[in-house]
Amino acid sequence: MAAYVINEIAVHDPERFQTYSQQVPAILAQYGGAYVVRGGAPEPVDGPSPPERLVVLRFASREAARAWRSSPEYLAILPIREATSTSRVYLVDGYDG
Fold first, then answer.
1. Distance CA 51, CA 34 (A)
2. Residue 47: what pLDDT?
3. Which of 31, 50, 86, 90 has the highest count of CB atoms within 10 angstroms of its CB?
4. In the chain, where the domains are located
5. How far is CA 85 from the centre of its chain?
6. Which residues pair with 11 in a beta bridge?
7. Cα dihedral sign, 67-33-38-74
8. Residue among 35, 5, 4, 18 nearest 83 (CA)
């Protein structure tokens, strides 16, 4: 079953954040991940306003998503994201209806 990594993100240092975001696609590809949503201008419909950016990544499974998230390649650039933004990241299963 597909799994999705969802990242609600507020970028505080856009210039330095770019060094992170430019490296993510190649690492995603190594682990079979793909962008479903990248960035965006989320529009509130119900509830509080969303953060300025929303990223949704699709993987073949939770195991694949976890392998990407804990990979040496991703862990090497994660401190850049942490220093330049505030995130809430979670992993959810897809719907196999």
1. 21
2. 87
3. 31
4. 3-42+50-90
5. 12
6. 85
7. positive
8. 18
The values of phi and psi at residue 87, to 5°, are -130, 155
- Residue bearing tokens 């850049």: 80
Torsions phi, psi for 49 (to 5 deg): -60, 140
CA distance 46 to 78: 31
Residue-level pLDDT, tens digit, the chain, 97 residues: 999 999 999 999 999 999 999 999 999 999 999 999 998 778 888 988 878 899 999 999 999 999 999 999 999 999 999 999 999 999 999 987 7
Contact 9, 55 (CB under 8 A): yes
**How far from 72 is each of 15, 33, 40, 49, 75, CA to CA, in Å?**
24, 16, 28, 34, 5
Report whether CATH 3.20.20.370 matches the domain 3-42+50-90. Answer: no
